[in-house]
Fold these 2 entries.
Entry 1:
Amino acid sequence: MLRQLVYRSRATQKMSEQDIDKIVDDSVPFNKANNITGLLLFDGEFFFQVLEGEGETVHGLFEHIKSDPRHTNVVKVVDSACAQREFGKWHLRTLILNPDNQCYWLPQDLTVRRDSRVFSLLNSFATGRWRSCVSAEDKASVNCIIATSAITLAPYPASQIQFAFQPIVDTRIGGISSYEALLRNQDGTYPELILAGLPEQQRYEFDLNSKAIAITQGAKLLQPGQSLSVNLLPGAITQNKQVVDQLLRYLKEGGLRPEQLILEITESEMVKESDAFFAVIESIRATGIRLSLDDFGAGYAGLSLLADLMPDKIKLDRAITNGIHESGPRQAILHSVFEFANATGSHLIVEGVESFEEWLWLNNTGVRKFQGFLFARPQLNGTQAIHFNARALINQLQD
Ligand code: C2E
Ligand code: MN
Ligand code: MN
């Protein structure tokens, strides 16, 4: 099947037109032999390349290109089946853009369909707006250390269910801003069957009642200035009449102020955007308890819920975080969600940060709140120690 792959990257060294010619001379024989066509754009600093050909050949070539030391920050923008070649005549056509020229023109011999994605991307490349790479200078200026100790709590007495806690770190303060409480069996596994297996009304009651344990245990971890996040199904908020009173009682018993509690509205079920839902939300807000929209970008919640709920925190789902440093579409989503958060005064928390490269890219775009295995895994009745030193990790990266 015919495939089109587009990536962008940043040159690691100064490149002259002769250097670009050399790339073409090196590439054309391979491309000819393997029926690869495409285009290479260079603007003095950034590359933009389109590869067209059979799927396996294109992917194999891309892996090879990724490891070329002449460039870095390789970000894949498009990788999909296509009906026809855009650059059928060219085994590798190059174009060199004048960096001062914000206006893009195509030479007459290049006929790219005006309504094609590639044509739009060529224009967007020329404007330079998408360029968010981690440069060598960016790396040199990164300096973030988070070092915290483990805490172990006694299990909650006489209870089948327990909670694990995972820290959410804030690199601006260089420490933990909050802990998320996660439902667990006594052995630390996630109790799939409990929430899913109960009839609806009982599920909602169970979910709310379990927060007595989450809040009692979580309260023991909290330092001044830190808050506790708990998950609640939307139904547990709308279908329990006593939700506000019950939460306030648990907080009082745990010795926490309402301002220290954040309710994470999980997107695992559809939020019924009804007057009743927003009425309860308002009464929760009136107590000082804050709201977070969980798993944003992966569940059911649409943009209208985001607009109407105006959550205090937006938690971007790990499906978007995964490999963000090398994925053009994921980077574009991050930029727009971050912009929304900034425009509405929400805090963006990025979930599921597992690799240092993901963190480095996110940190470079200005994200400051993170949750993920890179820092700490959830720990049953306690919290893991964090040993995070960005400088040490940068020194381990080979570029
Ligand atoms: P969640 O609220 O999005 O919680 C984060 C989940 O991501 C946790 O899974 C956590 O272990 C996992 N996680 C954190 N960092 C990473 C990472 O870097 N990589 C990967 N791969 N995973 C990471 P867990 O504990 O299995 O919980 C799954 C979901 O169950 C939660 O997702 C939440 O939606 C739900 N849940 C947990 N506790 C409760 C609860 O008390 N009530 C309700 N309604 N739902 C709950
Ligand atoms: Mn959550
Ligand atoms: Mn989540």
Entry 2:
Amino acid sequence: MFRFGVDYYPEHWPEERWETDARLMQEAGFNTVRLAEFAWSRLEPSPGRFDFDWLDRAIAILHARGLQVVLGTPTASPPPWVMAMHPDAFRVMESGLPVSYGNRRNYCPTHAGYRERSRIVTQAMAEHYADHPAVIGWQTDNEFGDRCYCRHCQAAFQSWLQHKYSSLDALNAAWGAIFWSHVYTAWSQIPAPLATAAPFGDGSHNPGLALDYYRFMSDQYVAFQHEQIEILRRECPAHFITHNLMGAGYDRLDYFDLAADLDFVSWDNYRRMQWTFRPEVNPSEAALSHAVMRGLKQKNFWVMEQQAGSGGWQIVSVAPRPGELQLWAHQSIAHGADAIIFFRWRTARFGAEQYWHGLLEHDGRTGRRYQEIKRMGAELARVGAQIAGSEVRAEVAILLDYDSRFAFQIQANNPAFHYTAHLHDIYQAFHARNVAVDVVAGDADFSRYKLLVAPALYVLSETTARRIEQFVEAGGVVLVTPRTGVKDETNTVVNMPLPGLLARVCGVEVEEYDSLPEGVSQPLAFEQPGICDGASPHARIWCDILRTGDAQVIARYTQEYYAGTPAITANRYGAGHAVYAATFGDASLYTMLAPWLLKLAGVEGTLTTPVGVECCVRWQGERAIWFLLNHTAEERHVTLPAPMVDIVSGQQVDAAVILRPRQVLMLTT
Ligand code: GLA
Ligand code: ZN
């Protein structure tokens, strides 16, 4: 069943209103509501005294209107009494300062007392709702994240290290602690990597220590979540468990680890937020997030918070234009969402998020946004069952590596290099050609794919290197970019030429490199006809200077002391090819390389569409549902391979399609 619904806060509104809300939700075609993830103070007004009556009444009203419920454990925002009970449970920032009461996400995930409160409230909710006919599943906490640097975390880090390294000798060797005489002689001496260790802003902790700390902090949230999951699985075996993650951009948690414990992943999909204030929203950014979220468990996901209006805490963002809310929601579906839950139902009149707009206005009126989503609800009532569970099939994968991502947070290598932006530069090249891409971990089954992109695989394990090599040997095509294979898993620079463990498969060795100042770039000269006709992609940020063995030269640098030396190479290896792009190009470099790589790998595109029109396919067995999404404010013409059928209207659609501004079509053959 396709889930369509809304995030609702009955505790914010008078009880007399609840029936009206439930009726309007039903009329909008909603079947699912998320509740309670910020209601701790109402659920447990004082330690151990629980009040579920109000929530029971709210759920009963919703259920009578055919709505089912996902409950959030409320631990993301503790009531004041919890923090008064545990004043040392406030999260400590990298600066060494504790956060104070006022916002949310203010707790330390390690703190034993906080963990106990988390288990107590989870247990009480789980027992109360285990057999409730309306409740179908759980969301743990809300948007886990934020590293803590408190003394409890420091002590837990020391135990984590003891478990990992067994001996201080092993730890000192792994980190190269002899550098600056940081040789530890007791576990209790090991610090958390606070910013205060770098009074001159040079920020340099031992990279081995810092990487371990980032891994440790990620593990702490996974462990915090696991305690809730254990309770929920025991008490509510019939319910699913998910968590709302934050898309491709969030980089403080290893989302693969966090997702491993869940039945499926959910994420919160926002566009026009105050910090991305701009007229045109690039659809490839959300698409990348969808690909990352789908890749975490290599299965469909929920959007637990789909944008319902202007965003805004202090500043109000641009109003979503007519058609945009449904367009963005359909884009989520096109990329593998099996549920769209809008955030939020009614715009709050009080609290920090007064300007984060819901489907209803502050005064409870239904307006343009509600009507638009209601129309979408009516459509989904007809076609949702055909869509739910159908899958996105990709032959291209991009490898997302959290060790590398964390390590770049410690040493950016070049101030203009941003791991997520690099991922997006590459992703958008495939997105623009409507080629489905999975974003996967280093231990994923690569044999499902024909083309694998390994962007800046900075920390490279022997296992992953071997798996990439085997993938190419068996006929796959891999694209490798700079700063790959630089570090081993201890965040120590490898004792061999770069790209380290991938040098053999790439057929190149990096003799030296040039880290470019911001704004400096140079055109690349392409040797092979047909790859870069007309376009002139530039090298920027970083230039590896290569010695090539058997690898074929695809493009060369044109400036500096390395003018004329290879910048892009392709190496035959076994039955496949390894392409080494020795510079971080601008997005146009990948846009240009993509068709050539796809051809080399034998991947066919779905459909060529004009700029701003996206085409995605979801498969139900052999039946394909095509989503055509016009992200522009203008008409767009698309030519289909043959006439198709609009699954909403049942009407035949001509091969020459005219899409209205922001129109979405769902088609089948
Ligand atoms: C996040 C949170 C929500 C809400 C929205 C809007 O995604 O999960 O609780 O705060 O942002 O700010
Ligand atoms: Zn802490």
